[in-house]
Amino acid sequence: METDRYEYYSQIVNEVEVTVNKIRNLDFKKCFDTEYLEKTFIPDIGLNNEYMHEQPAELSAYYGKGLHLWQYPSQLAKYLVWLAHNAKDIKKYMEIGCRWGGTFIVISEWLKKIGAPLECAIAVDPIEPTPFINKYVEISDIPVVYLKGLSNSKEVMEYTETAKPDMLFVDGDHAMSAVMFDHLLARKVSNIIVHHDIASQACPGSTLFWSYLRQAEENFQHFEFTDQYPSVKGSFLGIGVLKRKS
């Protein structure tokens, strides 16, 4: 199954460059237009076609295309606008659990688009780098580092503590103990910590831990992007952001 997917993504790897160009050529005013990003821009990048019971039927025309983003446009759009207002100082971005690489590529390019002085982007995952990731390494105008391993490995921990990414996206192992570990790793170095799957019945560990973080992290402001689609039975995904107070 995984081998088939690697082969499939290798056939559509040009979508990486297509997406990068879409972001770079986007009218800057549109970076703050939530409706445009949700209804047009994000779906056009292409959405994930796994676990279809979690996906809204009204977006069916975009599934299995482009970068296969495993995000709800309604959530991601608001998050991108938040970044446009709040992440202009980010120099190093790290993502724990990048999987195929779609979200990692979009956020890395988005940070540059909004004017952040991004110096490098770092992806962590235990699988081999995917065709999307390899292509992004090839075409990126900044260094892209891929660490093949678990976030609790000595290599990843040491790299994180040395690189000190000032923004870190937690989307790896969703067990509560693992999410807690990744959060504590990020908390040492990052001013913006982003958690995925904070409002998902499919991920009770990450959802419950986020509920704790909202109350426990007094030195951070918290923001949530958890819009759901009425056509979906249940609650899924969700993006939570912690921004360190000045």
SSE diagram, text form:
Elements: H1 2-11, H2 14-25, H3 34-45, H4 73-86, E1 92-96, H5 102-113, E2 120-125, H6 131-139, E3 144-148, H7 154-163, E4 167-170, H8 176-187, E5 192-196, H9 204-216, E6 220-225, E7 239-244
Parallel strand pairs: 1-2, 1-4, 2-3, 4-5
Antiparallel strand pairs: 5-7, 6-7
Summarize the structure.
The protein has 246 residues and is α/β, with parallel strands linked by helices. It is 42% helix and 15% strand. It has one domain (2-244): Rossmann fold.
Question: How would you explain this protein's 3D organization?
Answer:
Helices cover 42% and strands 15% of the residues. By secondary structure, the protein is an alpha/beta fold. It has a single domain, classed as 3-Layer(aba) Sandwich (Rossmann fold). A seven-stranded mixed beta sheet has the order 3-2-1-4-5-7-6, with helices on both faces. Helix 6 links the parallel strand 2 and strand 3. The radius of gyration is 17 Å and the shape is globular. The N and C termini lie far apart (47 Å).
